[in-house]
Amino acid sequence: TLRLVCTTTAVQRKNVGASGPEKYTEAFIKKQIEEFNLGKRHLANMMGEDPETFTQEDIDRAIAYLFPSGLFDKQARPMMKHPTEVFPEQRKIQWGEDGRPFHFLFYTGKQSYYSLMHETYEKLLNVQKHQDQLIAQDLPLQKEKRNLAGSRWLTKIELEEMLLEKLSDDEYSRFIQLLQKLAALPCADIEETYIQKFSKEVPVQLQKVVIEPLQYDERGVAFSTGEGKRKTASATAVVYDNGTGKITVNGIDILHYFPVLQDREQLLFPFQFLGRIGKHDMVCTVSGGGRSAQAGAIRLASAKALRSFVTEKEVEFMRQAGLLTVDPRVKERKKPGQEGPRRKFTWKKR
Amino acid sequence: MAAPSAAGLCRRLRAWLPRIMPVRWSRYNPSYLEPEVKKESYQKPLEELTEEEREQMDLKAVRPIKAAPPTLSSSVFSDPMISKFTNMMMKSGNKVLARSLMSQTLEAIKRKQVEKYHKAPENEKETIECNPYVIFHQALKNCQPIIGLSNITRGGKTYQVPVPLTDNRKRFLAMKWLITECREKKHRRTMMPEKLSQELLLAFNNEGPIIKKKHVLHKMAEANRAYAHFRWW
Description:
Chain B: It holds the Pfam family Ribosomal_S7. The structure holds two protein chains of two kinds. By secondary structure, chain A is α+β, with helices and mostly antiparallel strands. Chain A folds into three domains: 26-86, no CATH class; 106-201, no CATH class; 215-321, Ribosomal Protein S5, domain 2 (2-Layer Sandwich). Chain A has twelve helices and eight strands. Chain B has a domain at 96-230: Orthogonal Bundle (Ribosomal Protein S7), CATH 1.10.455. Chain B is mainly alpha-helical.
């Protein structure tokens, strides 16, 4: 082996960052797991509990008890977790002893991503060939519509975890477009198993909120309560059955409390949508915010209260009309170096 | 693979020009869908829906929905076009004033039409339209230009090139012309509702300065037909 006789400090200085994050060998991880299990049993012994049924939550509680820490950041406090959670999942060394890489796409830098794209395109060509065969034989193409509404594609983070490689937004969108193209073909049922690897079930019933049952007060009249927020205003509404359509806000009638027509329209919106204008009475309390925010808060509170009076289908209709969603829009903060959230200072030439 | 790459290229180009992109974001997750407020769309039985509507319904059952804005309501009196016009008339966020001006305008239109109705002979009574909402919509439709002009610079000179307009742009131009016309070309003492109702009635009958402006624009576009090939989109 040759050795450089005259060198510069630049050559001698080892580039620490170039080798990437620290690589953990399999033996090291195994040892960590053994130590963790042993430590778990010791901890259980110390706390006087059964080592066999010592769960992660018990470990967390024990560590918090034995090593109390006043630090703010939860990640900075002492913790004891399974090594697979502590050490990130890494790839094994991708080249053999002679330095030759195993995968043919190694030198692209993102071998799993490009091999995935090649595989998916191969499946696409397969499906197209099958389609051409069916057309040549004059057979009808299978037209079972795949239920797109019930599933979603993997997110970028999930795909990164699957491939163990960093992806850019652009590459991710290209992959999703290819998958969509594959799924949209009529004979895509052949590659159904492959497509299912990259799709996830979305819970069909988005409104898995528990609707409270009606309560009855002393006179026997059914009523229900609801709470709503909008910007800084928060409101509570109590909707009574067998009413005449009177609405009271903070003890004041709505005609006096909301002189503007738009606010009164918003208050009546849920009732008008369900067709129950003259049938319910409402008593609400509201605080904070401005006039429009208070109206929006009461609208949300009354819609939530009306859920108990109405069938499930109508609740779904209310949700699709946007009556049951909390409005997340709030005032944008002012930024330093600007006059307002968006407005910049007047530009002066000198 | 040409089809996906073309769309991807445009998006990539757009993402690459950071200074030119405006910062427009919303507090909602992009998966949130727009709310549907009209009661009739929920009362249709399942059989009458087309394929697309069924798919839309399935999608809506799964995705979250945005909250309805305060200007939108299921009552018969809320009209998206009227709300848009009110917002354009509004100055410094004074929605109360803008809304009252709008309602006074509609009242003025109704009064004028009812007066005309009572004065007209029997055979013409059916042709007079009294519904102010119908008059408003028809007048706006009459004011919308079909083709617009845009400035394109080629070889140092700027040409006015005829260009097709989207629906939104047409509506916006019609409303903008109406409002600027009523703000500038009126006597100091006339009230806005009065002037607006006058202009709307004229536009409803295809007369008046705004219709003239629209025709002038069309004539300019027809005159500059030769430069139409300068457009690349």
